Amino acid sequence: MTIKSMVTAVILLGSLVISPQALADSDSISRQQAANPNNFGEYRNANDVPKSISHCSANLLVCAERVLNYGHSGQDQDRDLGKNIGTAEIFIYPQAKSKPDVGVVIITEQPYGDDGDDSVGGERYRIAFTQQKNTQGKPYWKFVSQRYQVYCLRGSEGWSKKSCV
């Protein structure tokens, strides 16, 4: 093996090794992490959202935005969603033939802290749907749950389903 090929191999190997801190600082989330709702804190379930929003025939991202924009007061609220979005990731988890496919949208909002809370650096929402068919056989996404994580800047830094200190 030549010196040039050894250096190239070391550089390539080094680029594959990512520190845990670099992963924690990343906006993106792995497919495996997104699949597990237990990685996120509870926020909203299907009973909290009206059928007009929870049964969505648009694409998954549009459906997720509708749920995310739905306010605590039970009405649509303009959150200026695009203002702080760092990433929006869509994952489809095919199920057995007898079960509907699951669609998960992860929306990460960064930078955060416009509300004066300097302990939070971002929020990540996990919005889950199942694929259904209406009486005419047309597919739609049925909202299942919305969960969240916060990116803590103090104490136990990184993404957490618990409040920051």
Report the uncertain regions. Answer: 1-25, 72-82
Global mean pLDDT? 76
Number of strands: 7
Structural class by SSE content: alpha+beta
N-to-C span:
53 Å
How much helix, percentage-wise, in residues? 10-25%
Total tally of structural domains = 1
Radius of gyration: 19 Å
**Main sheet summary:** 7 strands, antiparallel
**Beta-strand share of residues:** 25-35%
What is the succession of H and E elements? HHHEHEHEEEEE
Question: What's the helix count?
Answer: 5
Shape: elongated
Can you walk me through this structure?
Strands 1, 2, 3, 4, 5, 6 and 7 form a 7-stranded antiparallel β-sheet that branches. With 165 residues, the protein is α+β, with helices and mostly antiparallel strands. It has helices at residues 3-16, 20-25, 31-35, 51-54, 60-69, and strands at 41-45, 55-56, 85-93, 102-109, 120-133, 139-152, 158-160. The protein is 24% helix and 33% strand. Residues 1-25 and 72-82 have low confidence and may be disordered. The longest helix is centred in the first third of the chain and has 14 residues, at 3-16. Strand 5 (120-133) and strand 6 (139-152) form a beta hairpin. The chain is built from 5 helices and 7 strands, in the order H-H-H-E-H-E-H-E-E-E-E-E. It has one domain.
